[in-house]
Amino acid sequence: MGYQFGSWSPPYRPIPRHLHLKDIERYINKNIIGNFVWNNVRIQYKTMMYEEDPFIINDAIDEAFASLRYINYIMSVYKNKHKKLLTS
């Protein structure tokens, strides 16, 4: 997905709460979808690292599992897009 472990490129603009399929495809075409996804995961981890409120922690865990479902979706879109490029 274009991500190298350990690479860090902070976002230059605020992270959108919701992405549209056209945004995902644009990031895939620019080969930065991996950087976008995993840098956002890193940012969320760093913001919640020292949280002690159990309600906020449980909410963050629920949000993380929902995000994982979307990451899997993005990965399937990425694979399908590259499969189409290789067969055409």
List keywords for this structure.
mainly alpha, 88 residues
| Class from secondary-structure proportions | mainly alpha
User: How many beta-strand segments?
Assistant: 0
Mean pLDDT: 80
Radius of gyration: 15 Å
Topology order in helix (H) and strand (E) letters: HHH
Oligomer: single chain
Distance separating the two termini: 20 Å
Strand content: under 5%
The low-confidence parts are none
Helix content range of the residues, please? Answer: 55-70%
- What's the overall geometry? elongated
How many domains? The number is 1
**Biggest sheet statistics:** none
**Total of DSSP H or I helical runs spanning 4+ residues:** 3
In short:
The protein has 88 residues and is mainly α.
What does this structure look like?
It is a single chain. The protein is mainly α. The chain has one domain (21-87). Helix content is 67%, strand content 0%. The protein contains 3 helices and no strands. It has helices at 21-29, 33-48, 54-87. The protein is elongated and about 50 Å long. It starts with 20 loop residues before the first helix and ends with a helix. The model has no long low-confidence stretch (mean pLDDT 80).
